[in-house]
Amino acid sequence: MAILNIIEAPDPRLKVKAKPxxxxxxxxxxxxxxMVETMHAAPGIGLAGPQVGEALRLLVxxxxxxxxxxxxxxxxxxxxxxxxxxxxxxxxxxxxxxxxSLPEQYAEVVRPAEIKLRYLDExxxxxxxxxxxxxxxxxxxxxxxxxxxxFVDHISALRRNMILRKLQKARKLKQPVPA
Length: 179
Fold this sequence. Notes:
Strand 4 (92-99) and strand 5 form a beta hairpin. This protein has helices at 26-41, 133-146, 157-174, and strands at residues 46-48, 58-61, 78-88, 92-99, 102-112, 114-120, 126-132. It has 3 helices and 7 strands, in the order H-E-E-E-E-E-E-E-H-H. The strands form 2 sheets. The chain has a 5-stranded antiparallel beta sheet with strand order 1-2-3-6-7. The protein has a two-stranded antiparallel sheet with strand order 4-5. The protein has one domain: Peptide deformylase (Peptide Deformylase, Alpha-Beta Complex). The longest helix has 18 residues, at 157-174.
């Protein structure tokens, strides 16, 4: 397994619509394993293919059980290929979201409170999942990446521009000053 490079905004690769995975083969299985390792190392609870430079419809998530502290819970990653939301509740709920591609930036995003997901797992088996709470938010957030959408695309232009300027400033401060 390997830790992959996570692409940060405003990289144009984050705005590309991902293509369906034709077959869950050894390369896809290895990529999913590497994405899980990368997500855990970051640390994060979700990661989509486009965030690691793979414009494929796949994502990994590892959401802790709600109401329990993350510490002490064993990892329980899900590997999701070609996800499709087949139902979303009419009830909307705001959540404070962050993203590994926009480090240390957060904003409230309103999303459906519940979803039903159809997908392939890492063996290529068709699955369905009913998700609520943080799990539903995480899946929707990662699926946005597959459409070239970032969480900041759901907020006001003013707030989005502030976040993107902060990221650019932070990046400049990290760069070494030329001699």
